[in-house]
Amino acid sequence: MAAAPDLVLDSSLRDWVLFPILLVMILVGILRHYVTQLLQTTPKQLDLLTIREQQALSRGASLRGNGKFIPQSSFLSRKLYLTQAFKDGIFLKDQEAFKNKDEPKQPANPLAEPGGMDQMANMLKGNMVMIVPQTLLMSWINFFFSGFILMKLPFPLTIRFKSILQSGVMTRDLDVRWVSSISWYFLCLFGLRSVYDIILGSNNSASGGMDMGGMNMAAGGIPGMQPGQDVYKLHLSEAENIELTSHEYLLEDIEDRLLIKYDMY
Amino acid sequence: MVDTIELLRSVHKTSSFLTMTPAELTDVYDKSSNLITSGVAARKLDSSEIFSLYELHFNLSLLTSHDVEASAILTTLTDRFGTESPRVAVLQALYIEATDSLAKALEYIDSRPETETGAWKRRIAILKTTASSASSAVNVQYVNELLKLVDHVPSDAEAWSELAQAYIEAGMYSQALFALHEVLLLYPLAYNINALVGETTLKFAANLQAQGSAAPAEEKLIEATKFFLRAVELCEHYVRGWAGVLIGSTRILQQSKSTVDLKLYKMIKDMAAKQLQEIVKSKDARPEDLAAAEILLKNYK
Asked: Which residue of B has its CA nearest to A52?
């Protein structure tokens, strides 16, 4: 009697539970992909003065970084102009507010800025798209198929895998190779990414928050700028940085460099 | 096929189709058309690259007067990205400009929000085409628009170099040099811009010489030679750069006072002549550059 199988699974379990869960997971993933695309708002265009405010900073940075490529006189005139301009705040978006600035301004509330609000809404939408179907699927499986054993893995595993493969099944001595329904759900949840890649092409949003891409996008926005930061302070520190930059003209001894390179001495 | 994709990628990235000869254009157009119609593009490229390819193919189609094809691609892109996409708006403006009148294109561009720098630059481009033939008032308007653009978007090297070109044409060399230096701050390794700074400085020097101020003119000549030397340091076989070195050093030798190290510039001149001769001998340049080099070598013995 030793050869008798310890457990026999009804084939309807495979047909009516295993495959339906897989299929539903794939379909939900595809649905999620399209819902995410629909919910995506195009990033809001900054108004011209905000662009100017930010670009001024990058101009300062390029002068500091690449100033050695232009003659000293050009460098110095730019240095003088930019430091003074940054200090006078002439690149600032809100000239009125800058001029009437008597009382120390308290740090602006990031929620008050329209841009910050948009970002949060986007993040919220992304999370909702992820959480809602997951909750529904979980409760669907828990309600109908809790405690089901769905399949047997064709290879042996150590006892440690028991908690991964047999969650929801309360037997201590069952072989680890048996996979329960809720575990099958988790395996699908984490393992379907490459299937989505085949169906929807790369860069799809079917597996939602599983990758870090979504997080980065939410944190993106303007490089080097946190919402609510005082731009004037940034400009002042840029002015200081420029003031501290000294000029070393790269073309100072270019004649000698080339004469040596072409062996003319 | 991989070569073709690589080629088209670089053409799209550098916008080199804008300076191609008609024969080259047709060739590239055929290649991209093949790539799209054969379906290879859809298999090999991911979605963002496909749309870049479409954008390129749109431009190529317009330039090779395949208007219907351009319109089809424009429709595809509009379907995918919607009319509010700034990049699609630029293509739409280009299409109207190519198939209808400039006035219609201007009308379309004016309907776009003012924050779209792409559309803004199209407007300036249209202004330029009218400016070159029209009165000085339009020219002033053209330069003013450019100035406004670089005030808001100083990281736009294209705008700075357009501005420089306008100033060079007007003979305002110190302003032109300012704009070119600004380009250099953004792209310090662009050898062609280094050579252009050299050329502009040469013209500036000639201008100063004509006005009778010899000392500053000499300073400018030295500076011009420096920039030409920088250009050939970055790109060894750059005929324009070596030609500039030759001309600059020759002028220094002709005009200079005792303050300059004449021996140094004699050596530099010899070096430039030698390099140009080598390039001519090995025929390692475009035919028109080679012809120019030969003429120069004859004139600046």
From this structure: B152
ipTM: 0.83
Which range among A115-124, A172-181, A218-227, B229-238 has the greatest average pLDDT?
A: B229-238
* CA dist., res. A231 & res. A98, Å (int): 11
What architecture is the B108-183 domain classified under in CATH? Alpha Horseshoe (1.25)
* Contact A198/B at CB under 8 A: no
Q: Which residues of chain B have pLDDT under 70?
A: 132-135, 137, 257-258
pLDDT single digits (tens) A44-89: 667 888 888 889 999 999 999 999 999 999 999 999 999 999 998 8
Question: A133, A125, A170, A175: which is closest to A154 by C-alpha?
Answer: A175
Q: Give B246-258 pLDDT, tens digit per residue.
A: 999 999 988 876 6
Q: What is the CATH number assigned to the segment(s) B189-301?
A: 1.25.40
Contact B183, B163 (CB under 8 A): no
Do A255 and B225 count as a contact with CB atoms less than 8 A apart? Answer: yes
Distance from CA of A226 to the nearest CA of B (A): 21
d(CA A176, CA A167): 11
Domain with CATH 1.25.40.10 in chain B: 108-183
Q: Which residues of A touch B268 (CB under 8 A)?
A: 255, 258-259, 264
Helices B287-299/B262-282 angle, 10° precision: 140
Chain B CB contacts of A115 under 8 Å are none
Q: How far is A127 from chain B (nearest CA, A)?
A: 24
Q: What is the DSSP letter of A265?
A: -
A64–B contact, CB cutoff 8 A? no
Q: What is the pTM of this model?
A: 0.77
- Across the interface, of B46, B178, B267, the residue whose CB is closest to A264 is B267
